[in-house]
Amino acid sequence: MSGKKDKVEMAEEESIATKTEEASENEISLSEEELKALCREHVCPACDVMGEAKEERLRALADAENVKKRLARETDELKKFAAESILSDLLPILDNLDLALDHAQNLEACKDFVMGVDMTRKMFLDTVAKHGLESVGKAGDEFDPNFHEAMGVEQVADLPDGSIAQMMQRGYVLKGRVIRPAKVMVNKLD
């Protein structure tokens, strides 16, 4: 039996070899443009496979565009608030300059000193304002929990109810973002 199998297998191998030789003799050489044209002719534009491939390509392009936009937004945000930590570290210096001015304001002997501290404070405020830092809240303004932190209530007759009666500590905003809320006393009329 093994002899018959060997003969059959040999005949099949010869047949395959013959077909391969014939195919290589009949090979047609096509340029790349001709090959692309043939492919376009044989692919049906309404074919599901082509439609799915097109949708997948469009989704990939949309995802790439979304990633590009998100990275641009994050980069802009990073640039906009890059100085936030440094400016928030400088706020105690402004607080101390304000305290020095408040305590020495009525001392006649320290008039030149007060003027120097005031000039330094103004220069400091001008410098940080160039980077987008602004102070928020002053007595008489309406209390806004987005920018103010209520420390208590006071009763001041000439101020409207719900307004700031007294500033305990200045608040600061960097380009619209609260760095430190202002600590205030809120006017409460009975």
UniProtKB/TrEMBL annotation:
Q: Does the keyword rRNA-binding apply?
A: no
Source organism, top-level taxon = Bacteria
Pfam families named in the record? GrpE
Question: Would I find Transcription regulation among this entry's keywords?
Answer: no
Q: What is its main location?
A: cytoplasm
Share an example GO biological-process annotation for this protein: protein folding
A single GO CC term, please? cytoplasm
Q: Where is this region: Disordered?
A: 1-28
Q: Which UniProt keywords apply?
A: Chaperone, Cytoplasm, Stress response
Q: Where is the composition biased (Basic and acidic residues)?
A: 1-10
Q: Where in the cell is it found?
A: Cytoplasm
Q: SUPFAM superfamilies from the xrefs?
A: Coiled-coil domain of nucleotide exchange factor GrpE (SSF58014), Head domain of nucleotide exchange factor GrpE (SSF51064)
Q: Which residues form a coiled coil?
A: none
GO terms of molecular function = adenyl-nucleotide exchange factor activity; protein homodimerization activity; protein-folding chaperone binding; unfolded protein binding
Family listed? Belongs to the GrpE family.
Q: How does it assemble?
A: Homodimer.
PANTHER family assigned: GRPE PROTEIN, GRPE PROTEIN HOMOLOG, MITOCHONDRIAL
Task: Name the job this protein performs.
Answer: Participates actively in the response to hyperosmotic and heat shock by preventing the aggregation of stress-denatured proteins, in association with DnaK and GrpE. It is the nucleotide exchange factor for DnaK and may function as a thermosensor. Unfolded proteins bind initially to DnaJ; upon interaction with the DnaJ-bound protein, DnaK hydrolyzes its bound ATP, resulting in the formation of a stable complex. GrpE releases ADP from DnaK; ATP binding to DnaK triggers the release of the substrate protein, thus completing the reaction cycle.
User: What HAMAP family does the record point to?
Assistant: GrpE
Q: What is this protein called?
A: Protein GrpE
- Which gene specifies this protein's sequence? grpE
